[in-house]
């Protein structure tokens, strides 16, 4: 894959859940280093699109290419290799609450570590300095040994970001990463995500309910409405009419 090859390409992708069509005939190309926000009402298909991109969902129709591979035609082993290059951050953090922070951060190594090493690290934490550095980058270095469920929501989302830093993927997908945070923490988390994308040259795709954040921090906005792409535009070209149309019932 050359630097300018698409990182994702979707050709005629439709996603059905029983009789419900969550996404309809999506054609989309995303390039390395792009910062893309997915916006649209609840149920528009944003999370479904992210699950298709990280290969946790297979499309009902169409093709998904990620990092040069057609996801429905590769071996399980190759799929795991591709997925190692795609880090996902979720609204509900997806952390193990009763473990200390260091173990949740070290989960970023899991795609590379053997089962033995992973089990050993639960008893005697490995790569402590690397975990500490990642936590320093997200602003909570002192929480290394705190139990995860003793942290605030904003701090837990930072732990999830530190885990992605450790995973060091080519792509970061973030599914409504700020919906359970207050406006100030939301801004900090979005700024951290953008910083991670910018410093590492990583592609960032984020689903967001806040159009303001999308316009302020992202290069490209994709407006999804009832499973279709209503617009796909640079942030500077998104007009208030386009936003009104997106949220109009
Ligand atoms: N596993 C599933 N089984 C059945 N229906 C599903 C499933 N996942 C999503 N859907 C449906 O697909 C549609 C799109 O859902 P999706 O979660 O992608 O929307 P969204 O834009 O992310 O919404 P929100 O902003 O509320 O998270 C919705 O109608 C949802 O109920």
TrEMBL record:
GO cellular component: membrane
SUPFAM superfamilies: P-loop containing nucleoside triphosphate hydrolases
UniProt keyword Nucleus, yes or no: no
Gene Ontology molecular function: ABC-type phosphonate transporter activity; ATP binding; ATP hydrolysis activity
PROSITE patterns: ABC_TRANSPORTER_1 (PS00211), ABC_TRANSPORTER_2 (PS50893)
Keywords: ATP-binding, Cell membrane, Membrane, Nucleotide-binding, Phosphonate transport, Translocase, Transport
UniProt-listed InterPro entries: AAA+_ATPase, ABC_transporter-like_ATP-bd, ABC_transporter-like_CS, ABC_transpr_PhnC, MetN_ABC_transporter-like, P-loop_NTPase
Domain (ABC transporter) ranges: 8-249
Gene3D superfamilies per record: P-loop containing nucleotide triphosphate hydrolases
Full protein name: ABC transporter, ATP-binding protein, putative
Organism, as annotated: Coleofasciculus chthonoplastes PCC 7420
């Amino acid at each position: 894959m050359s630097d300018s090859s698409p990182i994702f390409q979707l050709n005629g992708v439709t996603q059905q859940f029983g009789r419900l069509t969550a996404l309809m005939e999506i054609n989309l190309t995303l390039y390395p280093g792009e910062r893309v926000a997915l916006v649209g009402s609840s149920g528009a298909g944003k999370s479904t699109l992210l699950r298709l991109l990280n290969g946790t969902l297979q499309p009902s129709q169409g093709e998904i290419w990620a990092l040069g591979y057609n996801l429905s035609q590769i071996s399980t082993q190759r799929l795991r290799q591709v997925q190692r290059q795609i880090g996902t951050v979720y609204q509900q953090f997806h952390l193990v609450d009763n473990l200390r922070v260091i173990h949740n951060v070290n989960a970023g190594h899991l795609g590379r570590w053997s089962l033995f090493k992973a089990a050993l690290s639960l008893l005697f934490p490995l790569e402590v300095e690397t975990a500490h550095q990642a936590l320093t980058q997200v602003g909570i270095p002192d929480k290394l040994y705190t139990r995860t469920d003793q942290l605030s929501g904003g701090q837990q989302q930072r732990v999830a970001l530190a885990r992605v830093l450790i995973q060091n993927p080519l792509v970061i997908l973030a599914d409504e990463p700020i919906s359970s945070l207050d406006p100030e923490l939301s801004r900090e988390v979005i700024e951290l995500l953008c910083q991670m994308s910018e410093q590492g040259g990583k592609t960032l795709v984020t689903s967001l309910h806040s159009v303001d954040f999308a316009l302020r921090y992202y290069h490209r906005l994709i407006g999804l409405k009832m499973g279709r792409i209503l617009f796909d535009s640079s942030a500077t070209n998104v007009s208030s009419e386009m936003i009104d149309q997106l949220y109009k019932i």
